[in-house]
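User: Sequence in, structure out. Go.
Assistant: Echoing your sequence, followed by the structure tokens.
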Amino acid sequence: MELPLFVVHGAIVWKVLLVALVSVSLVLVERWRRRTERHRVVAEVEARLGQVTPVEAGAVVLRGRIEKGAATTTVTVAKREISVSERSAELLLDVGGEQVTIAGAVEVRHGSHEAPSFFRRSHRRTVNAGDEVCVAGTAARVDGANASYREANVKWTLVDAQIAAVRPAARPAPPRRVAAVTTVVLLTAVWYGALNIVGSNALKVAIKGELTDSVGNLDAIAIAAAMPGSRDTALEVLERRVKTQLERSEAWLQTRLTLLDLRGDCGDARLLFDLLRLEEALAAARACGDSALATRALAFLGRFEEAWNASRRDEDPYTIATLAFATARWNEAAEAIEALAALADQRERSPNYTGADAAFAVTRLRCFAALVRTFGGAQNAIASVPGAASSAPCEMYAALARPPGEQAAALAAIVPDGVSKTMIDELRALAGDASTLSGHDGICDTLVFEMLPHPFMWLAARQLEANLVMDKPAQLRLIDKHAALLVHRGDLAGARQQLAEARTLDPNFVPLDSEEVALALVDPTAPMPTQVRWMHPWIADAYAIRVGRPWRSEGLSDCPERTNVAIERAQAGNGTDLAAALRECHRLDWRAIRPVLLGVGPRIKHGRDEVARVVRLIFDESTSLVNESRSLANEMNTFRYLPNVAGHRNVARLLGDEEEAVRLQTILDRYAAMFADPQRLLAFLLLHE
């Protein structure tokens, strides 16, 4: 959809329109002032003309023509009016052949030329030679002894003259500043309110209407987007309608991104995050000036050094600690953790955060900082932290500060309470004690729930090598978990080798059948097992679709029948209808669709590229990479982000979208290299303990 000018530039359009309306209104107000002033002046001059008298001694009103000279009166408008008059040395008036000399000070009440100046706050009124005027004053006959008057044939003088042009220019004086400002403010408020009303009414019409494939400047939604007060809501309505009513396509996405960008708050960057278009999200975050989002984008891309060295890095202590862990900057990480301890100490006390809670948090964080410093080669100083002797977390950290060969025994010697038992078991597993492994967390769980295997599984290979003497159940559990990690990392051949080793150890190991099915689901080249004794219930649908069994569901989209038919045709090899359904069905449940794609992907022979292109535009809208948690440390520590990347990579690979699969695999590889370091993995595990 091509967005019209009123939508794209509406924030400027209404301002320009407001200025234009106010300007036109000011012009009309000025014309009204001129007209009013002219009527007043003409009436005043006509009244004065009705009082014209002949030339005689005393008070007179004379009508004549200025024969020589000129006169000007300038009135300055300030807190009070100041009038200054100027005149020619000789100012001669011809009244019906009689020569009248205007002597002394004069006042030009209405000039034949007038020049009001708003900026100078002045009004200049002028009469010149040749102007017909009406003059009021006091006349006197010229004294016969005055030779100069006799020579000029002047018989009369006029003093205290007030002059008005018979044909006055009649320009109003400039308004006082307060009045001018009040007028501008009032007009602005009136027109702003009018534009708001126009936008509000247009928005009501737009909400009742339906979105078409094109929007013009005169459409209600465009008018609402170009008006103050309604623009933000109009953009939100338009973006939501584009999202839910138009077909998914690259143009559809770009329209949404444009609308989100126009709405502000880096909404376009957040959408790109959710679509895992992290390079584009990085550019969008930088463009909107959100350093926290830009830092997160670099970290999610696995470009940890760039994130650390960014000129406008997010300075949140959790973020600094996270990036310092990722780049093995242990001293800087310890300083960030000590900053967190200071924040915990400064936090306001409440019934939910008592003084005892604060003391516990401060002690734990200081011990954690001391442990992190040991990773950088410093001496173990945990015991010197005030309160460490009575802190259970500090006791765990002290055990972890020992040399690697002593950690498992030190952890085993700790008597855990109900709160710390789970953490101690996890730490024992990290230290190499495989006997603490519990639960399954194999390939099926990792694949179906998009959960990353537990952090200790990143070190499973080392534990398998180190634990030469291990009971068979523990070894099988560790092999199974290691296979799940390899599937997550994309090493399918390595995972297959692990499952073969597990079957050698115990052919009757119950999870194996289901794990082999799960591995085959993400490997387009692997044969699908046909004899399965037990299958994880959450992969049963994907298995049924892969082997070509009839399958139907009501929970995929808002057009279930169409989607089911499309899946049946995709099972038969034609994915064109499936691509169309994914483009046009507006409400899609990604969590339900993903297993379907895992099952049907390798069976599609025709239209696979179309399916792959539209799949790039689908994501799980129940969670967001940037809204669910504002903390980068929390996202990386709980490993909620990487399973999303792995899930999309699996689907891309099964659909033959190698470019997308390689891009996502690159991110996973960067993280795998970082988490292969036991100290970094341990630091992430403990950060949100």
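User: And one key feature?
Assistant: The two ends are 48 Å apart (CA to CA).
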